[in-house]
Amino acid sequence: MGETDAQQQQQQQQEGGAAAPPAAKQRVISKEEMAKHNTEDDCWIAVHGKVYDITKFLPDHPGGPEVITNIAGQDTSEEFEEIGHSDSARHQAVPYEIGVLEGHEETATGCVVPKDEKAKKAASSGGGGMSGIIPLILVAIIAILTYFIIARQSTT
Ligand code: HEM
């Protein structure tokens, strides 16, 4: 199984050029299949709809292997976010991506995107609101000053 998948991926990369890798990663994996890979020697997790085979990464995980093997074979999105993983940690997950979780084919963002989306949302709701008001206040101040300057000139 594993070998044929690897061969297929290699073939797709050779034939398809730049478009091949995302297509190869769109393998749809059911929750039942995920659940079978729940040990330290065979460890899959799902984060925000994408499935990662992190068996080889486990010994290097800075939080230790046990925290992950305890919840292996499951959707670990909440646990992953609760830790507040850094951007660097999110990018380290990318090479281990093996597919999308069934039902998340259209919405899967995986480890990397959610934090960026949060940042964008924060910028547009908080920052966007304020940056709309500031120019209006400046225009009002300039208008008032101009009014007083003209009024003073006309009295002298
Ligand atoms: C592909 C998946 C994962 C990758 C690549 C990853 C990577 C990392 C990295 C690089 C760190 C060091 C801190 C940082 O840079 O944020 C870290 C810390 C940690 N991770 Fe993960 N992690 C993954 C999944 C998980 C999951 C599913 C859990 C679930 C509980 C978890 C729990 C922790 C904990 C407890 C720490 C230690 C935090 C600390 O000491 O402050 N990680 N991880």
UniProtKB/TrEMBL annotation:
Where are the residues of the annotated region Disordered?
1-38
| GO cellular-component term (any) | membrane
What family, per the record?
Belongs to the cytochrome b5 family.
Query: Where does this protein reside within or beyond the cell?
Result: Membrane
Presence of keyword Transmembrane helix: yes
What Pfam families does this protein's entry cite? Answer: Cyt-b5
What protein is this chain from? Cytochrome b5 heme-binding domain-containing protein
SUPFAM superfamilies according to UniProt: Cytochrome b5-like heme/steroid binding domain
Q: Which UniProt keywords apply?
A: Heme, Iron, Membrane, Metal-binding, Transmembrane, Transmembrane helix
Instruction: Look up and give the organism this protein is from.
Output: Vitrella brassicaformis (strain CCMP3155)
